[in-house]
Write a structure and sequence with these properties.
The chain is mainly α. The chain has a domain of 55 residues: Head domain of nucleotide exchange factor GrpE (Nucleotide Exchange Factor Grpe, Chain A, domain 2). The chain is built from 9 helices and 6 strands, in the order H-H-H-H-H-H-H-H-H-E-E-E-E-E-E.
């Protein structure tokens, strides 16, 4: 039965092809089979596994330590970042406050510039009016202008005593101050001080200024007027009209008139007596 089956298989084409392949390449099929490699002893495997396990534990420990360090660094950086954010937020608020203040200062500065410009224009206009007025005064008061020029040469002491009369060093103040009735007494008193102290230059100028002021006052009053007292050499000394100069006799005639006095013609009141030398 087996023989019959074997012979029948030899008629199979696939079996025939395989037999030819064996005949042509016998080495492939005749090479002895190598025995399997021997496995290492169980103890060596365990030792190697333990070493590998130890190494992995060390690596894991180092990795965990590195993770902790990184977490600390992250916390530090987060804290630093938070401080920076707070600082930045505060700086932004400060910057906004400064910008707001700057904007307000710019508005104030602009307003002040406009105000100064307006004030400067007003000042320029006022100065122009003053200049025009002074020019008109010069034309209307030619003599006053000449006296004002002379007044500029007055001694410093006398001018200081007259600051209450001529408050400013300009022609308008000279005219306005001289036109006040109360100025007559002050000018006369300073004039007397110059006469009695022999400051001839100042006395001559102030006498002209006094006479001119007398005219200004009289021209600006409807009723009240002032005039100088008559005082001449040879007149009998009159205590109602005269005041003795130093070195004078108690009675006699007027030998010299130092300074004429003046009176209010409206009420006949003598305001200042004439200063005379009696001999």
């Amino acid at each position: 039965m087996y023989k019959y089956n074997l012979l029948r298989l030899l008629d199979d084409a696939e079996v025939q092809r395989k037999i030819l392949q064996i005949v042509e390449e016998p080495k492939i099929y005749l090479e002895p089979v190598k025995p399997p490699k021997e496995s290492p002893p169980p103890d060596e495997n365990i030792s190697r596994l333990e070493e590998e396990n130890s190494r992995l534990k060390n690596n894991l420990s180092e990795a965990q330590q590195r993770v902790k360090e990184l977490e600390q660094q992250i916390q530090t950086e987060q804290s630093r970042n938070l401080r920076l954010e707070n600082s930045l937020s505060q700086s932004e608020r400060s910057s906004k406050d400064l910008q707001s203040k700057l904007a307000e200062w710019q508005k104030t500065f602009t307003r002040e510039q406009q105000r100064n410009k307006s004030l400067q224009q007003d000042l320029d206009a006022a100065q122009l009016k003053i200049s025009d007025f002074e020019e008109q005064l010069q034309q209307r008061f030619a003599r006053g202008w000449q006296l004002f020029q002379k007044y500029q040469t007055l001694g410093a002491h006398a001018r200081q005593l007259l600051q209450g009369v001529f408050t400013r060093d300009n022609f308008m103040s000279f005219i306005c101050g001289g036109a006040q009735s109360e100025s007559l007494e002050k000018i006369w008193d300073v004039l007397r001080e110059c006469v009695m102290n022999s400051r001839q230059h100042d006395a001559e100028i102030l006498w002209e200024v006094f006479e001119y002021s007398l005219e200004l006052v009289n021209s600006s009053r409807a009723q009240v007027s002032y005039s100088t007292l008559p005082a001449n050499v040879g007149d009998r000394f009159d205590s109602d009209l005269h005041t003795e100069a130093p070195g004078s006799r108690a009675q006699g005639k007027v030998a010299r008139v130092y300074l004429p006095g003046f009176r209010n013609d409206y009420n006949r009141r003598i305001i200042r007596k004439s200063i005379v030398q009696v001999s």
